Amino acid sequence: MIFAITPERGRALALGFILVSLSAPASAAMLIYEALQRAAERDPTYLAAFAAQRANRERGEQDRGSLRPTVGAFGAAQLTSSDSEFAFGEAQETYPSWTASLEARQPVLRMDWGARGDRATASDDLADALFRQQQIDFVARVSSRYLEALNAQDQLRLIEAENLAVRESLENTRKRYEAELVPGLDLREAEARDDLSRAQRIAAEAAVEDAIDALAELTGPFDRPLPSLKPTAEPPPLPANSVEGWLALAGDNSTALRIAERQAEIAAADLRSRKAETQPMADLVGTVVHNDSTEYSIGQLQTEARIGLEVTVPIYGGGVTSSRYREAQARAEEARYELQRAREETRRQVARQFRDIQVASANTEAFRRSLVSARAAQAAVEAGYDAGTRTITDVLDAKSRTAQVQRDLNRARYDLLINTLLLQSTAGTLTIDQFLIVDAMFDLPHQ
């Protein structure tokens, strides 16, 4: 699975397996594994998962414990005042007495022994599956916000570059206008584009702040810069290249399916256990009792040891047993339908997320080719402007198209990376290896 961390060890070891695997020196930028480390130390949802796992595993231990011996002790001390009349007279006495007993009981016959064992095993597996699901959800949540922040940051850089280019075009147009080489309409058009570019920059800056705030909500405040995606970076290789292949992986690894399967097993075991409540039960019982009333004139000192077999046969319990059995039947049926729903939902999610990857991959390739064409068209328009055959509006339109294609390309590349991680999380194949590859896809800021 992904990794293991406890709240106590988290602040010292930080993502157990990750720190073992990642021994590179600290970077000037906060890479994705460090974001995971920081979030693991403070995310209450993730930290609560450890307590939930411990609590859930105790359910299995409780089932096992119900089949083990029990030992109990009892003691009592009394002060008795007695006023008696006999044929030969009367007696009044006040005397102390005490009793102590020890009982050991071992179940020897329960018709649901097998059901309890199956339920205990399924409860342990369910606790682990729920915890793994929390781990996967945690990694998907942090990595998605991290990549969204990187994309917003890259979009801002592109808009800033476009803003600079538009400003240069405005200055050039102003000089040409002052030299009476272009009409006033061109100058007003350039000024309008500059105003629009500045507005886009303000919106992009706000988007970066929102994305950073969303990431900091999980990781805590940070003042280190974030890296950027390399222009030639390729997403991690996929373990399967078809929907059928991913469905097979999900069938073997999906935590959502494991959870539904274990819940169905527990419900089936509950049904068997409720049915056994109408069957005889037998316990081997050993008892030692000590009574001391020697302070009484006819008292005694008695020690008694007994061992025997106790058999209980339920006959009528007011309809409670039958009601519990009917409830267990309905719960088992509910769990079977929930398992069916989980399988269908997993199939749908895997198919949709695989299509999302295909769309993002196709968009990435299309925008790369479009960017080459847009840059060539921009160069031709700029040459025509210098030759006097194109207007400043044509130049600004060409620059805007190039910048927009570049932004679309970046968005598609981040979508491809995010969708790849989400698909692997749904299929249950997400591991730390993916984050080692992802970190290698980033360009670190200059120190």
Keywords:
447 residues, Outer membrane efflux proteins (OEP), four-stranded antiparallel beta sheet, 11 helices, 65% helix
How would you describe what is shown here?
By secondary structure, the protein is α+β, with helices and mostly antiparallel strands. The chain folds into 2 domains: 7-67 and 110-279 and 314-443, Outer membrane efflux proteins (OEP); 70-109 and 281-313, Outer membrane efflux proteins (OEP) (Single Sheet). 65% of the residues lie in helices and 15% in strands. It is built from 11 helices and 6 strands. The strands form 2 sheets. Strands 1-2-4-5 form a 4-stranded antiparallel sheet, with no helix packed on it. A two-stranded antiparallel ribbon has the order 3-6. Strand 4 and strand 5 (301-312) form a beta hairpin. The longest helix has 68 residues, at 320-387. Residues 1-26 have low confidence and may be disordered.
